[in-house]
């Protein structure tokens, strides 16, 4: 049971959020529909586009609309999507978190966005956060046409993530993952565990601010569920975007929360040697709301303007 939703503060709701221009779209990945929002650019002709998706089991209404609207105010288009198995997208079983599938979804989203008449296919940027902060590195490393990448509080190294966790907790997650995977092979129902819980409970994330942070960014009518198929632990343990990060050739912005107690910031700080670093005195979840969100969105908008918009078309955001 989570706490009551926090009431958004004035600095969390910029004026442009009152009436965003947004279209509901779908695209297909291996026969399954993925739900997406398109925030069209506000200038004449096709607009440069930022593609966004959440981390781990997150869904698009968990503050990604805030980032998309901020970028739209700069004259950029934004394309925000839900992964298969989550949110408004299709896919069975529900709540199946797979890094491989999510990277496939990213590549399909890029291809779909490039085919939209309102999008400039030559000016595409990727925006990832948490788990998807590693995904965007993999996609950009294999796609030389990507113009810029923003990676925020990224999960780059699964082994580093595992080492940061207490051994007993890691063992419990791996054990649940093994039961879930064996059950899947036998045609049994998924073994679900909570994505977030109180400290010392059986959940993936148990930091003191996990539940309160999610409450701040999850609308009451959200499609998000506090559950994930446990088998994710068997593959995420070995997930790594370190090599991909070294192969990214486009401009790269790395945003790090110095107080991140969900994902160790060390690998991200190392990655930032290849790009631009912005650091915030905040926790992981604070990047999605309040003053930390405002600061991160401002820095990211400036970075994206610089690399996607001609100087004559840049708009100074409020």
UniProtKB/TrEMBL annotation:
Coiled coil: none annotated. GO terms for molecular function: carboxylic ester hydrolase activity. It comes from the Bacteria. It holds the Pfam family Hydrolase_4. Residues 47-275 form the Serine aminopeptidase S33 domain. InterPro entries: AB_hydrolase_fold (IPR029058), FrsA_esterase (IPR050261), Hydrolase_4 (IPR022742). Keywords: Hydrolase. Belongs to the AB hydrolase superfamily. PANTHER family: DIENELACTONE HYDROLASE DOMAIN-CONTAINING PROTEIN-RELATED (PTHR22946), POLYKETIDE TRANSFERASE AF380 (PTHR22946:SF9). This is Alpha/beta hydrolase. It comes from Solirubrobacter phytolaccae.
């Amino acid at each position: 049971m989570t706490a009551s939703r926090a009431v958004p503060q004035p600095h969390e709701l910029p004026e442009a959020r009152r009436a965003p221009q947004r279209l509901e779209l779908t695209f297909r990945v291996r026969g399954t529909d993925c739900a997406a929002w398109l925030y069209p650019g506000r200038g004449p002709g096709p607009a440069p586009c930022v593609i966004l998706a959440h981390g781990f089991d997150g869904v698009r209404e968990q503050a990604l609309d805030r980032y998309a609207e901020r970028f739209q105010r700069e004259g950029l288009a934004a394309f925000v999507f839900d992964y298969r198995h989550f949110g408004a997208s299709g896919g069975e079983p529900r709540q199946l978190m797979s890094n491989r599938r999510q990277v496939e979804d990213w590549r399909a989203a890029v291809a779909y966005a490039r085919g939209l008449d309102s999008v400039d296919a030559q000016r595409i940027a990727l925006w990832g956060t948490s788990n998807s902060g590693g995904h965007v590195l993999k996609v950009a490393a294999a796609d030389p046409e990507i113009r810029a990448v923003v990676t925020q509080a990224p999960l780059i190294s699964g082994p580093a993530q595992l080492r940061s966790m207490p051994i007993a907790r890691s063992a419990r997650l791996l054990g649940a993952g093994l039961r879930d995977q064996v059950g899947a092979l036998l045609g049994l129902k998924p073994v679900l565990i909570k994505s977030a819980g109180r400290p010392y409970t059986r959940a993936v994330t148990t930091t003191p601010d996990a539940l309160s942070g999610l409450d701040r960014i999850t609308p009451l009518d959200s499609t998000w569920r506090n559950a994930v198929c446990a088998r994710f632990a068997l593959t995420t343990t070995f997930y790594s975007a370190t090599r991909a990060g070294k192969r990214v050739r486009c401009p790269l912005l790395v945003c790090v929360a110095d107080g991140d107690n969900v994902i160790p910031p060390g690998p991200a700080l190392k990655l930032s040697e290849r790009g631009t670093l912005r650091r915030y005195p905040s926790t992981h979840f604070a990047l999605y709301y309040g003053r930390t969100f405002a600061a991160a969105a401002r820095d990211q908008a400036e970075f994206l303007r610089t690399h996607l918009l001609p100087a004559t078309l840049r708009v100074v955001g409020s």
